[in-house]
Structure prediction request, 641 residues.
Amino acid sequence: MGKTLTEKVLEQHLVEGKLEKGTDIAIKIDQTLTQDATGTMAYLQFEAIGIDRVQTELSVSYVDHNTLQTDFKNPDDHRYLQSIAAKYGLYFSRPGNGICHQVHLERFARPGKTLLGSDSHTPTGGGVGSIAIGAGGLDVAAAMAGEAFRLKMPKVVNVYLTGKLPDFVSAKDVILEILRRIGVKGAVNKVLEYTGPGIKTLTVPERGTITNMGTETGATTSIFPSDEITKEFLEAQERGDQWILLEPDNDAEYDEKIEINLSELEPLVATPHSPGNVKTVKEIEGLKIDQVCIGSCTNSSLRDLKAVAGILKGKTIDESTVLTVSAGSRQVVEHMIHSGEMLDLLKAGARILENACGPCIGMGLAPKSDAITLRTFNRNFLGRSGTRSAQAYLVSPETAAVSALTGKLTDPRSFGKLPKSEMPEKFIVNDNMIIPPLSIEEAKNVDIVRGPNIKPLPEFGPLPDNLEGEVLLKVEDDITTDHIMPAGAQILPLRSNIPEISKFVFNVVDESFHDRSLEKGGGFIVGGDNYGQGSSREHAAIAPKYLGLKAVIVKSFARIHLANLVNFGIVPLTFENKEDYNSIDQGDKFEVDLTTLQTGKVTLKNLTKNVEISLLHSLSETEIEELKTGGKLPHIKQKHT
Ligand code: MIC
Ligand code: SF4
Prediction:
């Protein structure tokens, strides 16, 4: 039987287990990436493990999220990260160099390699044929220490593309179409593997858009083959020597298949407050808009910004619409300046922002009250823009640019002729804002620089055999990590200070959560399906743990959050019978007996309702051990000391 691309790369990296669907496997990690908002915690954990130097082929520390610098906190974190990179043998991509995923795709991602990143959009690297997976910071710290990464062997879904995208329809519409079909939990524990004649019509940046936002389907990762198009891209980035041919076997067997004829696609839009609420632009065309934001790791490549500049050239944006543009990298900015297209954007009225995450994570440019904001980003969760009453819609760069001109959501095909847009044969390669690793000798003299906002890691003790407490919060399906641990300009700078950031846990859902948790000495959360979707931020586990959260009991979990809960000693449990969710009320008193954890089942006594409920878990033996010792960190420390 032939192999899928996913199986080929995983097989080469397999260190434990067999490639059997749903079973536990461990893989060697070649590359890691972190960004500043998850990186400070990841490196505090790496330091705690006590290793002298990263053990990977390549590790990069990026600064792209926390760049507002409204006080000393962010710049202190940046200095800490820079000194860590120098001390432990990492590349350091300086603030101003761009968004981690865009820069990594341009400069580092390699076909056939594994990449683990402390950011959920790490699968962008699948655009050049890497197996690129998002994870919590502690898992990335462990990978830097040379530990294998553990996961459930995913199912492989073949996304078979035929045809060619029509004018004004672009890669974003492809991934929105997939989200329209399978929703935000359609690919949990699956890999989306792209094949078919249609892939030849998609450039690497377009593939990167698709693999990036594959995250929103819950997929473990997404991957394209490495072919002639990948070769051209790597050559244009002066990395032609890193190319290898990587394709699935002709007789590869897939678990599922999704067929998409690119020629039949039309402009799509994800409506509030989920990337899975997809409609055609035509269906809601004419919606009055207040703000248009172009950028983010999904749509900030040179290809995308050129498309936008072509549409805006010689025109002026609608007078009641604000337009922001943030490029993905300095390389993109340099090209746009040289070609004069940056001037086209500026003259049309765009507010040019730093090449960083910016408004995507509520770091500045929050929309006005009750605004309709149109974004080329990948997430439109409630409150994420920084304005709770705003409604965010996700679209392609083409739809965003044409709509900025009309002030209304507009089908870009009504623009007329598609403006010509030429990509350069060679990219401008200038890595002077990426500091390479120091030698082992040089690294010895480096001191780690710590500002006052960088607080020591909290330590958590072993788990008792019996958990007791009350239901602190009962929530619905599809709760995101943005609900659990919001970001934005006020909260994001607190990522290296758990006591402070814990004050904001579940803030958008229930402002009293923090105080109530402390008052009650912790307790339980009860939730629906796909609990913890979205961001990889492990703060959505550490901060609730700090407030005393003991177990989360839900209908189903999203992959990364589930791993983060285990990493920090919170027991993740699911209902054997989903109907039992209905019998529980917030405030109910629970007792959970953990002595039967090894059997895969535990019993919950609802003391208030006087009923017993059967709960399940999917934990491996290693995870059970980690949970019992109080999380993954004490467990790894034991091994390395
Ligand atoms: C996001 O898009 O939500 C983030 C901010 O990039 C997160 C990481 C974080 O919370 O720091 C992600 O996607 O993992
Ligand atoms: Fe940054 Fe937004 Fe991408 Fe997250 S989704 S890495 S916040 S640009």
